[in-house]
Amino acid sequence: YSCNGISLLVFNIKNQDNPILLSYYDTDDITEAISINDTFVYIANGKSGLSVINISDAFNPIKVGSYNTSNYAQKLFVSDTLAYVADSISGLRIINVADPTNLFEIGHFSTSMAAMDVYVVDTLAYVSVFLSALKIINIANPTNPVEIGSFTSWWPGEVCIIDTLAYLTDYITGLNVINVSDPTNPVSVGSYNAGNYAKAVCVIDTFAYVANGGKGLRIINVSDPTNPTETGFYDTGGDTRGIQIIDSFAYIADSGEGFGIINVADPSNPIEAGYYNTGYIAYDMDINDTIAYVADGGLKIINISDHYNPIKVGLCNIGTYTMDIKVVDTVAYAINFFSGLCIIDVSDPFLPIEICQYSTKDYASEVYIVDTFAYVADMQAGLGIINIADPSNPVETGYYNTSDYASGVYVVDTFAYVADYAAGLRIINVADPSNPIETGYYNTVDSAEKVYVDDTLAYVADNSSGLRIINVSNPTNPFEIGYYNTSGSARNVVVFKHLAFLADGNAGLRIINVSDPTSPIETGYYEFGNLSFSVCVVDTFIYLSSGQSGLYTIKYPSSLTSIEENQLPTEINLNQYHIEYSTNIISIYFGIKERGELNLDIYDKMGRNLKTLSNSIVESGYTKLSINKSNYPTGEYFIKGRMGDTEISTKIMIIK
Question: Other CB atoms closer than 10 Å to residue 18's CB: what's the count?
Answer without folding.
Answer: 13
